[in-house]
Amino acid sequence: MQKDFNKTQIDMFIEKCKQHNLKITPQRIAIHGAVVQSRNHPAADEIFKIVKEKFPNISFDTVNRTLLTFSQIGILKIIESFRGARRFDPNLENHHHLHCINCGKIIDFNNENYDRLEVPRNIQQKFTVLNKRVILSGICKECHKTK
Q: What are the structural domains, with CATH classification, of the chain?
C-alpha cells in the first residue's frame, strides 16, 4: 500500500496537534512524515534513523516519546508486533493486518466480513469494545519462496 505524505494528512496532523495544544515543530513534522512515508509499519528505531539524517542532534527518546504522543492523540496507531518492538501505523481507517512470522512484515488488508464481526455477548457485558482488528499470522510470499 503506497502511503503519500499528502496535503490531507498534513492538514489532519496540524489540526490534531492544535486540538491537543501540541507545538508543531520541524522535528515533529519530520517524525510524522517518516511514519506516513514508510511502507512497513516502522518501529521507533527505524523512524529515529530516518529523522536523525535531517536532525543530527535529535535523540531516540525524543522520537519514541513523540510517536507515543502521536498515538495518544490519534495521529498514529500502535499496532501489534510479534518481534517485541512497538510498531506504528499512520493508516487510521478500519483495516486488518497480515503478519509474517518469519521476517516480521506487516501488511494491511481490508475485508468487510471481518469489519462486521460481532462481539460475543459475554464480552459486551464485561468490556466496551472500541475497535476491532483481525490479525492473521503466517509466512509472506517472499519468505515462502526462500524456504
A: 7-89 (1.10.10.10), 96-146 (3.30.1490.190)
